[in-house]
Description:
By secondary structure, the protein is an alpha+beta fold. The chain has helices at residues 6-13, 19-31, 33-52, 57-67, 71-87, 96-103, 111-123, 138-142; strands at 132-136, 148-152, 158-163, 174-178, 184-187, 191-192, 196-201, 209-216, 221-230.
Amino acid sequence: MTTVDVDRAWAYLLGELPEAEASPLDEAVLGEPEAHEAMMAFEAELFDAYVEGALSGERRQRFEQRFLADAAGRERLRRAQALRRVAGPLPAGGAWWRGLLARLTAPRLAVGALVAAALALVLAWPVPAPEVRLSLRPDTVRAGGAARRLEVARASPVLLELALDDAPPTSDWRVAITGPGGFSWRGAPSRADAVAVEVKVDGVAWVSGRYRVTLTSAADSLTYDVEVVAR
């Protein structure tokens, strides 16, 4: 099995190694299960070091560029931060699991069970669903066109941009949304100008089906249809 120390593993993960050194590690990680598992452990410690603020400024920047550029990496960071709150501050030079094991010494409780409970808590930690944006124009509804399709997670916040087209600008817009199963939401716009009205819908358990958005004021009333696909 290929062996590697912590600093060299982090250099590999952060793209700091020259190609001549990185290439053999690529082959080992891809071809040796033990090497792959070891590198995953080093990667977990790298996340912990970032959470602890133990990386240098240059390494923090490389970490952010390589691991936090996508949603999966940012979710993993949130889980590492949540686990840090469970485990408390890390001992000098120790990974999160060393610090956690050092604290799980309550009498009559198995350490393994406590570790499993802590990990289960982190894995169940709620991760906010990403916001979904959708722009709608009333003339598509007036002309009998098909409703816009909106794919959302069941608890996603949704930001709707409702174009006013030729409707006169006003400050008294109100929004109502109706949907399948008696769904009903009412509120005021989060932003409005002469071009469009924005409304943010938070905390809604979306279900698949057809929704009607109605925008009303003292002077006008506009409608917009949305076909929601809830995942």
